[in-house]
Write a structure and sequence with these properties.
Methane Monooxygenase Hydroxylase, Chain G, domain 1, 2 domains, elongated
């Protein structure tokens, strides 16, 4: 075998694997679109009942055919506060069981019954659905095409793996690594882990493992070792998603790794007895063992279809037994990951997005939930920023005053970044497929974040006015401070009402109180302006004080305008459910 043949065979194998992976991705994402509107309700109905959580994880993963999608979604939900850590651990356990269904589909339909000859007719029949105006029909068309491409990829994968009869040197090459006893087992656990991390799909790595065993290139026990490695590698996806998420999400992702890693450890301890149990259960008719190495070519041809079945059984048995062993320790796992991954300092977590750092989810409804929660968090941050203004106005100590001034400036920079990041997230959602009502809802969200950021700009501007006055050592009469305090009290109430609407019921709000507060703010501003002119005539304070005072109540009233704009945007969007 020359270098060119090796190179050509390698890229052909990678291409076949890529085609399989593309089919799996297309099928999984189409199923997520079809089932997406129900997934939130399924996960939302979870309680701390661990058995219900396991069943839910298994059901969702079996439905969408992707444990990675389920675990990333779980991390997102924990990040958003929609799922507790203990609930997440239970769902992840179920997801591990659900993902074994993929191996059974491949084993039963890809080896025992080859569906590749039906793939092109399936694509031909489902292709017209891609042009349907119905999103559901279009998604079903994508699912069928993805299903067909998956089995075309599997057929190419089977054909791309070297034939050991035509290329006996391939088997000789592998023997150097497969005849080291238990050290070979550990090596192939590592190989399975690395392959899954690189490919980012345990299903694709599982398919490759099944094909290698089916073609006789990989002994059954080492293929089983690769399957164990794939169970570790698949946890990397969720941990990558959690890198920029909050502490709770990091804990959920690490719990997934801990659960799978513990499972691999105990199976390795009882590895050979476990394999013999699987071998006994499959019980080949001609008496040939799955673990037998020295069998004739004729014997292998008669039984090679059983090897994928044996591996699928091993995969399922491992995950079910691991779940049964650990389901009673869900709270313990949660405590362990909580102990290992410490809560960050409050200030460290203060200045960051909390909910949408994990990326766009495959369904617009789930992504919209995260965006709504992030916008509600944005509103609370702006309200907190406004609270610093009164502290700044009355702070006599230079050190604390400087710290407050710097903090307001930092908040203004953060709100700029928040607006940019949330807007980018919402814009990316608009690029996807969604209904007209959903698009209008997102446009309403963009209006809201624009007004929230404008409010932060005004608050920062007020802090600069206060500081300029402070630098000039101009004293403000107590009466004017009290009048400003009365105005700010109304603005605080307006912020509270705005954030209540953002947090509790974002698109079903009663805006009457918000409008009433806006009228009170305008009335109070008019009263202050009229009194200011009277006080200037009476020469109660100097012109410099008057300029500062005018700026303060004018800018403060502008805050009220932006606050009511947020409520009006919510009110306008509530018809788009």
């Amino acid at each position: 075998m020359n270098i060119f043949s090796i190179f050509w065979g390698t890229i052909t194998l990678i291409g076949a694997l890529g085609l399989f992976l593309f089919g799996m991705k297309l099928m999984s994402e189409a199923l997520q679109k079809v089932a997406g509107s129900k997934m939130r309700h399924i996960l939302g109905a979870l309680t701390n009942n661990r058995f219900k959580g396991v069943f839910t994880g298994m059901l969702v993963t079996t439905t969408i055919q992707s444990s990675s999608a389920t675990t990333v979604m779980v991390v997102s939900f924990v990040n958003a506060g929609l799922l507790s850590l203990t609930g997440a651990v239970a769902v992840i356990m179920g997801a591990n069981i659900g993902t074994t269904v993929t191996a059974w589909i491949i084993s039963l339909l890809g080896f025992k019954i080859s569906l590749s000859f039906l793939s092109l007719p399936l694509i031909g029949l489902s292709f017209p659905l891609l042009f349907s105006n119905s999103g559901v029909k279009k998604s079903w068309g994508e699912f069928i095409i993805g299903f067909a491409i998956l089995f075309i990829g599997l057929q190419f994968l089977k054909e791309s793996v070297p034939d050991i009869k035509a290329n006996p040197e391939a088997l000789q090459f592998l023997k150097a690594y497969t005849n080291m006893g238990f050290l070979s087992v550990l090596l192939f656990v590592l190989i399975g882990t690395i392959f899954t991390i690189i490919i980012q799909s345990s299903s694709a790595t599982m398919a490759l493992t099944l094909v290698l065993t089916y073609n006789g290139l990989l002994p059954f026990e080492l293929a089983a070792a690769m399957v164990l490695g794939e169970n570790i590698g698949t946890t990397i996806t969720a941990n990558l998603a959690a890198l920029i998420a909050n502490t709770s999400a990091k804990r959920a992702a690490f719990a997934h790794f801990l659960f799978n890693f513990f499972g691999v450890i105990w199976v390795l301890i009882v590895f050979y007895p476990f394999l013999r149990a699987v071998d006994h259960f499959v019980s080949l008719d001609n008496g040939t063992s799955l673990l037998a190495r020295n069998i004739t070519d004729a014997e292998f041809e008669n039984v090679k279809n059983i090897y994928p079945i044996g591996l699928s059984l091993f995969h399922t048995a491992f995950n079910i037994i691991n779940t049964l062993l650990l389901i009673g320790f869900v709270n313990t796992i949660a405590k362990i990951v909580t102990y290992i991954i410490k809560q960050k300092e409050e200030d460290e977590e203060e200045f960051r997005l909390k909910f949408i750092n994990t990326g766009i989810l495959s369904t617009s409804e789930l992504s919209t939930i995260l965006a709504q929660k992030e916008i509600a968090n944005f509103g609370k941050r702006v309200e907190k920023m406004f609270g610093f203004i009164e502290e700044l106005m009355n702070e006599p100590k230079p050190k604390k005053y400087s710290k407050l001034l710097e903090r307001i400036k930092k908040y203004e920079q953060i709100t700029d970044n928040m607006e940019d990041e949330i807007a980018a997230y919402l814009s990316k959602m608009l690029e996807g497929e969604m209904s007209s009502d959903s698009s209008k809802k997102i446009m309403g969200m963009l209006t809201i974040i624009d007004n929230l950021e404008s409010n932060a700009d005004v608050i920062y501007q007020i802090s600069r006015v206060i500081d300029q006055n402070h630098q000039r050592s101009i004293l403000i009469p107590e009466e004017q401070k009290k009048l400003l305090k009365d105005l700010w009290k109304l603005i605080h109430q307006s912020f509270e009402e705005m954030n209540k609407n953002l947090t509790l019921s974002m698109w079903t709000v009663d805006s009457r109180l918000a409008h009433d507060l806006e009228e009170q703010i305008n009335t109070k501003r008019n009263e202050l302006r009229l009194k200011h002119f009277e006080d200037l005539k009476a020469k109660k304070y100097k012109h410099k004080v008057g300029v500062f005072y005018t700026d303060m109540f004018s800018l403060s009233e502008k805050i009220g305008d932006y606050v009511i704009n947020v409520t009006e945007a919510i009110d306008e969007s509530k018809q788009y459910k």
